[in-house]
Write a structure and sequence with these properties.
The chain is an alpha+beta fold and 194 residues long. It has a single domain (22-193), classed as Protein Transport Mog1p, Chain A (3-Layer(aba) Sandwich). Helices cover 22% and strands 31% of the residues. It has three helices and nine strands. The strands form two sheets. The chain has a seven-stranded antiparallel β-sheet with strand order 2-3-4-8-7-6-5, with helices on both faces. A two-stranded antiparallel sheet has the order 1-9. The longest helix has 19 residues, at 87-105.
Length: 194
């Protein structure tokens, strides 16, 4: 009997040590969109943040260069920040993210990639929304520079001192149909309960 308990105890210990805690999905999106959760710090961008997680959503044809969904996707970061995000902070975070990501994906380690440039402009009014452009090297597909249009919005949870930064990206112009799909992806209303 003691042998069975020892086996059970070892099995439980082993599973608890190696089980990964799954962060909650904080975005509401069509079930056909792919989804991934990444914990901070991100291996390819460790200076970005040291706590929190990313919830990323992307359409089925994200990597198909002939699709209207090409390189169109959404992600949200759930972070503890010491200050209210500004245009400059968003620009720095997105630059670090894409420079790190593209350098990690780039297989030609002899090649020095062109650095990402980012511009955000706060929308008028009281809402914390930003519009921007990103020029980034596409290490995934074309191995050339590309321009992404981006919409960003901030959601703050005062009770937990947490911020959700929501980003929507696409190389398509803002009046393209894909933006209607991107704008349907929202932060969960109960994000402050995480």
């Amino acid at each position: 009997m003691a042998k069975h308990w020892l086996i059970l105890l070892l099995a439980c210990s082993f599973s608890s040590v190696f089980a990964q805690q799954q962060e909650p999905y904080m975005l509401v999106a069509d079930s056909l969109w792919g989804k991934e959760i990444f914990r901070f710090p991100l291996p390819f961008a460790p200076k970005l943040a040291d706590n929190g997680f990313e919830d990323a959503r992307f359409p089925k044809n994200w990597s198909n260069q002939t699709s209207p969904h090409y390189w169109s996707y959404v992600f949200a970061w759930y972070l503890t920040l010491n200050e209210e995000p500004s245009e400059k902070m968003l620009e720095l975070y997105i630059k670090r993210y894409f420079d790190g990501l593209m350098n990690a994906v780039n297989k030609d380690k002899e090649l020095t990639l062109t650095e990402t440039t980012v511009l955000f402009i706060k929308q008028s009014g009281d809402s914390p929304e930003y519009v921007g452009k990103i020029k980034v090297y596409n290490a995934f597909h074309t191995k050339m520079m590309m321009t992404l249009n981006v919409l960003a919005e901030l959601h703050y949870c005062e009770a937990k001192n947490k911020t959700v930064l929501l980003f929507r990206f696409s190389p398509s112009n803002f009046n393209s149909e894909i933006w209607e799909d991107l704008k349907k992806i929202k932060v969960r209303e109960d994000f402050c309960t995480f």
